[in-house]
Here is the input.
Amino acid sequence: MRVTCELLGNSFDLPAEPRRVVCLVSAATETLAELGCRDRLIGVSPYCSRYVEHLAAPVVGDYVKGRPR
Here is the structure.
């Protein structure tokens, strides 16, 4: 799968089916959960649990910075 960002002027290739996803945007996390990809979420922001009930993925950061391990 090729992903292109016209705004930034770059593109990159993703595996055909990503197995692990870190999502820091609440709306995107909610969309992934509704699409049945909840089991692929391995990291979220502290705001994602407001919109997705019973979210098992750990909080790994927010919009500005990641959390140290």
User: Anything to note?
Assistant: The mean pLDDT is 87. The longest helix spans residues 26-34. The CA atoms of residues 45 and 65 lie 10 Å apart. DSSP finds one helix and four strands in the chain.
